[in-house]
Amino acid sequence: MSDVAASGGYYIAMGCDTIVAHPNTITGSIGVFGVIPNVQGFLNEKLGITVDHVSTGKFADMPTITRPMTEQEKEIMQNQINQIYDTFTSKAAQGRGMSQDQLKEYASGRVWSGAEAKERKLVDVFGGLEEAIAIAAKKAGIQDDYRLKELPARKTFMEEFLGGMSAQAKEQSIKAEMGELYPYYKLYQKASNIKGAQARMPFDLVVQ
Question: pTM above 0.85?
Answer without folding.
Answer: no
